[in-house]
Amino acid sequence: MAGEPLIRIRDLRKRFGAHEVLKGVSLDVHAGEVVSVIGASGSGKSTFLRCVNVLERPNGGTMDFEGFHFDYEEGARRQPTAAQLRDLRARIGMVFQSYNLWPHLTVLENVVEAPIRVKGERPAEAREKAEALLARIGLAEKRHAYPSKLSGGQQQRVAIVRALAMQPRLMLFDEVTSALDPELVGEVLGLMANLASEGMTMLLVTHEIGFAREVSNRVIFFDQGVIAEDGSPGDVLRQPSSERLKQFLRRVLHEDAYHAAPAAPLLGGRT
Amino acid sequence: MRIDTIASWWEGFAPYVPGFAAASGLVLVLSVLAIVVSWICGLVAALAKTSRFSALRRASEFYIWFIRGTPTLIQIFIIYFGLPQMGLRLSPFVAGVIALGVNGGAYVAEIVRAGLSAIPKGQMESAQALGMSRWHMMSRIILPQVFRVILPPVTNEAITMVKNTSLLSTITVVELTLYSQTIIATTFRPFEFYIATALIYLVMTSLISQAAGHLERHYARSL
């Protein structure tokens, strides 16, 4: 893709104690791209996502995003300040696996809190925008309900709207359907697909291979703390080049679940 | 029991009703002020205990350890009788409020700390991810949730505070306990007057329980 990337990450490294989780990750994401990040648990994909908005502070590497230039090398002078981090995070939306709505605030209050108090929007204006967003996802009549009164799928859609209300330039999704009951996954993926079709730049960690194939225009395979494969969904998912990605895809697509079934009867069947 | 017995009991009490009312009022004022002081001390100590600076953490730990491990009465004596030796002379009222407040603060600190650790980490992360400052996150997102969690133990602390004001009788604060003692000294009727005093404390502590119960039901609406 041509032009300046929206976000440019170089040689990003992160370790927890002696354990190196990210071993030098470089990635450019252009505006409008929808990038799915796949990989086994422990491959570093979630940590990578959390490094993008610095919920985890990297131990090395650089990041450029909308005029911010951060250098995470030890002793570097361009370490992000607290004010810069707030500014950065206000422009990057994030949605979590466990929704993380605030239980003591209503749906509407959850959505308008940051626009009013972080961006300084006028309350009436923020409320109007929030109500329009909630109407678009069909939850307008729930605006005065508390999160506990909503289903998991509804809560996660509100969490997405809460992030969108800040009008972010980039959205991060961290396994946002993993905690949902299977019948509720569709409504959340549907909303994300809409968002993608409207041109939102998205970086999502997911186990939904179907979604990665249909909706994203780029798939990244994380393996042992580095990006092992990077390409279009067609290339990466249909013609994986590495043996590890083939194995991973077989596992998540349950293709060899039957072959792995034990030969001996589990329930002590009669011989 | 015959009517005239009750009547004569009441006759014995009646002259002291205004005095009891004033002493009860003083208990309320002392309790409210000491609770305010205890909250300030408690919040500071709880924040200090989670601070990045080890000196603050140590200071907070020492404070909680010392207060919880020594009798409240001795703490009151240190402030009222001990501090003048250091050149700080406080009135019995002020010394009493400070002593009870500092005492309660150590317990409030532990309650707040437990409350903070009961809030899932994701609550803070979602606030941070939206660009909130630490102050904004604490005041609008975290502490309101902490407050609900700690309401029951905080209620107990408030009740303890009301009862602890009785200890201030030892440093000449004429609150309920000392007032009833002075009456008993002249009437020689300890049974009736101590029972009456106990009932007044009971009314005050019961009102606190009632109020807390209302608050809890109010918060339950979002659960």
Automatic annotation (TrEMBL), chain A:
Keywords: ATP-binding, Cell membrane, Membrane, Nucleotide-binding, Transport
Listed GO CC annotations: plasma membrane
Gene3D superfamilies: P-loop containing nucleotide triphosphate hydrolases
Sequence ranges assigned to domain ABC transporter in this UniProt record: 7-249
Membrane topology type: Peripheral membrane protein
Compartment(s) of residence: Cell membrane
One MF term in the entry's GO annotations: ATP binding
CDD domains reported in the protein's UniProt record: ABC_HisP_GlnQ
One Pfam family named in its UniProt record: ABC_tran
Chief location of this protein within or outside the cell: membrane
Superkingdom field: Bacteria
UniProt similarity note: Belongs to the ABC transporter superfamily.
Protein name, as recorded: Polar amino acid transport system ATP-binding protein
Protein's organism: Ancylobacter tetraedralis
TrEMBL record, chain B:
An annotated GO cellular component: ATP-binding cassette (ABC) transporter complex
Residues in coiled coil: none
Domain of life where this protein originates: Bacteria
UniProt keyword Transcription regulation present: no
Alphabetized InterPro entries for the sequence: AA_ABC_transptr_permease_3TM (IPR010065), ArtM/GltK/GlnP/TcyL/YhdX-like (IPR043429), MetI-like (IPR000515), MetI-like_sf (IPR035906)
Subcellular location: Cell inner membrane; Cell membrane
Keywords of this entry: Amino-acid transport, Cell membrane, Membrane, Transmembrane, Transmembrane helix, Transport
Keyword Transport: yes
Bilayer disposition of the protein: Multi-pass membrane protein
Pfam families attached to this UniProt entry: BPD_transp_1
Transmembrane segments: 20-48, 60-81, 93-116, 167-186, 193-213
GO molecular function: transmembrane transporter activity
Domain ABC transmembrane type-1, residue spans: 24-212
Single biological process term from Gene Ontology: amino acid transport
Family classification: Belongs to the binding-protein-dependent transport system permease family. HisMQ subfamily.
Function (record text): Part of the binding-protein-dependent transport system for glutamine; probably responsible for the translocation of the substrate across the membrane.
PANTHER family: GLUTAMINE TRANSPORT SYSTEM PERMEASE PROTEIN GLNP, MEMBRANE COMPONENT OF AMINO ACID ABC TRANSPORTER
Name of this protein: Putative glutamine transport system permease protein GlnP
Gene source species: Ancylobacter tetraedralis
